[in-house]
Every structure is written in structure tokens, then in C-alpha cells.
Amino acid sequence: MNIQKIELEKDLKIWLKILNDSFESEDRLSLYSKLLNIESFRLYGGFVNGQMTTTGMTFYDGESFGLYSITTDRNYRGLGYASNIVEHILGEIREVFSGFIILHATQAGKKFTRSLVLRILFCSVIGANCNTI
């Protein structure tokens, strides 16, 4: 999977389509368009064969990072793409920041989040460099 920062409005529209379908939310193009130009926010898309399949977003408040909007297009779920984008984002954050990272999860993402946290804890307890979280 190829993971890219979302910077163009055309990509943002696809990003929002996946997000809105997954979270059954309304289209917030005008709100998210503003985030593209704010340094403390980063939007990410995971692409498979040129098709965006996975979304993610970070926010830095000066003290901690938050991970939000981690979801996968319903046609691509169960293939590890959400794990891949989280791993990529965490790696990018850890290159420049060693503080707290908060993973926001909805009720629907509870199982994924629990599994991810257990894998991270396992890797840190055994002292392994788990390249695949």
C-alpha cells in the first residue's frame, strides 16, 4: 500500500467519501478543506493500485498527537490496510516526537484498536522492533 499526505481537494473528496460511508456522517468538505492548509493537521490516504482505500488524520496540539479518522473502504476491509496506515503514521510521528499519541476510536473501531494496542504492548514488553504493528 502506498500512503500519501492528502493535499489536493480532489483527493480530499475521495477521502471524505470513504470516511462518511464508514462513519455514516455528513459531508464536511468545507471544514476539511480548511484543514489541508493548517500545519497541525495532516490527512493521509492509503492507495492500492492507484485507488484510495484507507484514511487517517493526525492533529498536534503542541503537547500530544491524536490519530483520528482511521477507516477503510468497505470493499477493502480485513486486508490489514488500516493497520498499515496506522503503522506508517506512528512511524512518521516517532521520527520527530516522543510524547503521547492518542488513538481516537469509535465503537465500530473498538476491536481494531484493542488489537493494535495489544500488538504495540507486546512489542514494547519483549523489546522487539516490530516493523509490522
Automatic annotation (TrEMBL):
Residues 1-133 form the N-acetyltransferase domain. One of its GO terms (molecular function) is acyltransferase activity, transferring groups other than amino-acyl groups. PROSITE patterns: GNAT. Coiled coil: none annotated. This is N-acetyltransferase domain-containing protein. It comes from Leptospira interrogans serovar Grippotyphosa str. LT2186. The lineage of its organism: Bacteria, Pseudomonadati, Spirochaetota, Spirochaetia, Leptospirales.
